[in-house]
Amino acid sequence: MTGRSHRPSHRPSRRRSAVVATLALVVSWVGTAGAAERIGTTFPEDFPEILDASLGVPVIGFGASGAVERAPVIFLHGNNDTPYPTACNGSFGHMQAFAQHFLDHGYRSSELWGLGYQGDQCDALADPTVKSSAAHSTLANVPDVRAFVQAVLDYTGAEQVDIVGHSLGGIVPREWLRQDDAYASVRRLVAVDSPHHGIINCSPSLRNYYANPAAGGFHPDSAICREFGAADTPLLSALNAGDATPGPTEYLSVRNIDTSFVYVEAQDGAFPPVPAEDRHGRPHDFSASGRLEGARDVGVVGQGRHDPALGTAHIGISNSPEVWQLTLDFLSSGPSPAPMPAPEATASVRPHDGTAARAGALPATGGGAAGLASVLLAAALWVTGPCPTSGSRSRRSAGSRTSTRPGRATPPSPRSPGTRATGSRPGGGA
Question: What span, in angstroms and rounded, lies between the C-alpha atoms of 152 and 318?
Answer without folding.
Answer: 23
